[in-house]
Amino acid sequence: MWHLLEPLHAVHYYAPEAFAEAAALGYDVTERWPGYFAWRAAALGPVGAERVASAFYSFSPAMVARYVPAVWSVAPPAEVLAARLRAVDRTYRTLLGEEVLAGDGIAEAADLARRAALAAPLAGRPLAAAHAELPWPDAPHLVLWQAATILREHRGDGHLVALAAAGLDPVESLVSFAAIGAAPEATFASRGWSAAEWSAARARLAARGLLAPDGTATDAGRALRAEVEARTDALASAPWTTLGPTATTRLADLLGAPWLTVIGSGLLPSENTLGIGKV
Description:
Blueprint: H1 2-10, H2 16-25, H3 33-41, H4 49-56, H5 61-67, H6 71-74, H7 77-96, H8 98-101, H9 104-118, H10 126-132, H11 140-165, H12 170-179, H13 195-207, H14 219-235, H15 238-243, H16 245-264
Helix pairs in contact: 1-11, 1-16, 2-7, 4-5, 9-11, 9-16, 10-11, 11-14, 12-13
């Protein structure tokens, strides 16, 4: 379900319509990060760099501090959230088309995804809880996007719990993920860690027997990452257990065509830090 829903959420961060809305607010769109940090953190309110770095986890705190809290001097969170929905609306209309958005399939998918999102436990899930507090939009395709957002942040919040339980700090989480071949190391440079910080994390993981001298994961390293993913799945299971297998399968079927459209749009990068579009 994550593989199906994540592209429907994440396309917003790459769509030209989102960059246009960010530019209209006054953000510098020559790079994606001012808009990204504003879009994703706005549900938390006008928070500072430490809280954003804590909730986002994998980004270097120094990188976060380059953008937060400065993004709130450009536009307050309420304006950012309104612009974000406009951006999603425009993006979906461009990608999926008016006929699809007006069809029964999107409305049914939105209802099922919302039911799953409402079943997500929010204790200890700051980003999921922040998005769950937002009012639901009226249009079914926007309901679908908001439900996908709550569910992906719910899963993400649980993933951070799993990483911390495995003793992987933010940069170690990225190094260990790269070490199992999730993406080339260069892809993770977008998170802002210095070469020295990356090397130090490598050394710490090697000392634990998790990395080989060439930087690839040892058997123990792969086992630890598998444990993290299994724990993440377990912590993300409540919405789908509540929705039930029949309704979950129906939602998966309904999401297939929109998923293919988004993946086929070319907007999502082929190499990314999340494994979007890979099975």
